[in-house]
Amino acid sequence: MKNTFCAAGAFLVFAVALAGCWGDGNRDNPPSVPAGLTALADNATRISLSWNPSTDDFGVAGYRVFRDGVLVETVAVPGFSDNTLAPDTVYRFAVSAFDGGGNESLRSPEVSARTKVATWRYVFAESGYGYSVVQAVDNGIVAAGTVAVAGLSYEMYLAKKDILGNRIWTSTFGERGADNTDVIHSVARTSDNGYVAAGYTSQAGVTEGVASLAKVDGAGNLVWKKTYYPGGGQAWGEGVQETPDGGFIVCGRTLYSNLAFLVKTDGTGNQVWARTYNTVNWAYDPTTAVRVASDNGYLFVFRGGTGNLVKTDPTGNVQWQTTLPTTEAFSLDLTADNGIVVAGAQGGNVFLTKTDGSGNVLWQRTYGAGIGRSVRQTLDNGYVITGYVASGGNDIILLRTDSAGTLLWQRSYGEAGDDRAYGVEPCADGGFAVSGMWTPAGSATVHPVVIKTDRDGFVP
To answer: What single DSSP character describes residue 125?
Structure first.
């Protein structure tokens, strides 16, 4: 009897153990590894993931999503959109599955995707004009021009957007009062990560324009603002660059006497010297057209019946002047091979010419109807030009070329009405920032506009 009882007990223990292993499944087995993981960039901040469902003896309870090796989300069903990402950035993703017993599968093989380059178009609610744009050290976009303030005057403005187009700050400053006007024609980033802006100041009943220079810190606060009378008379500042000694060089034109000018200042805007140069035609439209040469002299362009490229020494004395094969020269930039590229218009067409460092013309190109108002060298040593073309009203145009000036693509942007662009900036993400203005159809009110494109010039 004793042996029979012991045998029965042993069999019962064995049966219980066997049931635990095979009766309803093994609760120690994890789900299968998620398969078929894919990642697709939807826009500049979102990547969407999809994968096939895992299997498990008792059912899958959920999935864990890992970005760059770090858990970012737990979801109940396959699929997840990660919408907290930075533009133009590569991210790696993997997924694991888990069941109700706390068992977790191995992670899936990683997949990667790059978010898209940020694109947007921003129209200011205020009336005004947009003339220049520069990228900030944090990759934000700073646009400059003039806006109406309190219905009394036009004041200088600087507006900073983040790379997604969200407002960071807006700064306005000037001589507030009825019929007073302060305008920024050009803005440049400074070595202290602030900004310097050139333009003019006019006061009702006093002057139609005094060349002005404003220094602004990285948060948009005005540090100082100075005015200048090159040639002893009224003038407009049109281009500005920081100089190697920490000062600034301003180019522009005098009113009525039709002279080009350079003003050299120290780091606090005090005038060091001023020079005037013959001859420049009257032209209302501003241009950003001065650069510091490799020998610390200066290069600028002006209109004088034909386009002119001028090189001076560090104290503003002319070393050479080249008459360019174009009727209108509006903008220039230095090139990586120590040459110079100039944009403008010739016979109603967008014009681009390349010279060597001594002003000898190497090649010239035209690209169809329009006016090239601003040119910059791109990250791959090609060129980008912005301006406008008549199309009912006008449309903003953006042209991209290779290093030899061969056209790669051309885009146009415009709403109903009149659109014009005056400034362009290649961005660190390979896209482009454009500053201009828009007059809606049927309206006399002009609004500043900022456009951020992708690498191929597309916007939403």
So the answer is: S
